[in-house]
Specification:
Layout lengths: L68 H13 L6 H10 L4 H31 L5 H27 L15
Helix pairs in contact: 1-2, 1-3, 1-4, 2-3, 3-4
Length: 179
């Protein structure tokens, strides 16, 4: 057994001794965990109080290159056509490519605004249909909600075709949430 009152590195108490020629670690020293790697040479820690803790060896990503005109047109087309599935595909495409291509930025915002407007209209019609189903005219609002969704798909296809042909498309009846 080891003596709890023994000092570190006491061979009489069963404590290990450091190899000869190496300094004795100070009291309270804890060895680094297994797998620890020292920072690379030339690493500079962030200034104290900045609240930023950069990992050793971390490289910040370089800004993305602008899209070629063909790629810009393709992503603008996909942003418009993605509206068939709702507002999520245009949102993702716009967030990823808005700074890389002007046409993708414009058409992504347009598609996203239209799909958000359609989603709000559909939810409002379903709520009205549920409330008014007591009076037996609620089915009309459910029908209108389906009609709005179908119109949204049709307009998304029309917009996709126009953008793919090299033009732009501006939806009618759209609230401009994102400018």
């Amino acid at each position: 057994m080891t003596d709890p009152n023994a000092t570190p590195n006491d061979p009489a108490a069963g404590q290990p001794t450091p190899p000869s020629g190496q300094p004795t670690p100070p009291p309270g020293y804890q060895a680094p965990p297994p797998g620890y790697q020292a920072p690379p040479p030339g690493y500079q820690a962030p200034p104290p109080g900045s609240g930023y803790q950069q990992q050793p060896g971390y490289q910040q990503a370089a800004p993305q290159a602008p899209l070629s005109p063909a790629d810009d047109k393709q992503w603008a087309f996909l942003a418009q056509l993605g509206g068939i599935l709702g507002f999520l595909p245009p949102l993702i495409i716009w967030l990823i490519f808005k700074d890389r291509g002007p046409l993708t930025n414009q058409e992504g915002k347009e598609s996203l605004n239209f799909q958000i407007s359609v989603a709000i209209a559909v939810v409002a019609l379903y709520i009205l249909g549920t409330i008014l189903s007591v009076i037996l005219i609620g089915f009309l609002f459910y029908f209108l909600a389906w009609a709005v969704q179908i119109v949204g798909v049709v307009f998304a296809i029309i917009a996709g075709v126009k953008v793919n042909a090299g033009g732009t498309y501006r939806y009618p009846f759209t609230f401009r949430f994102i400018k």
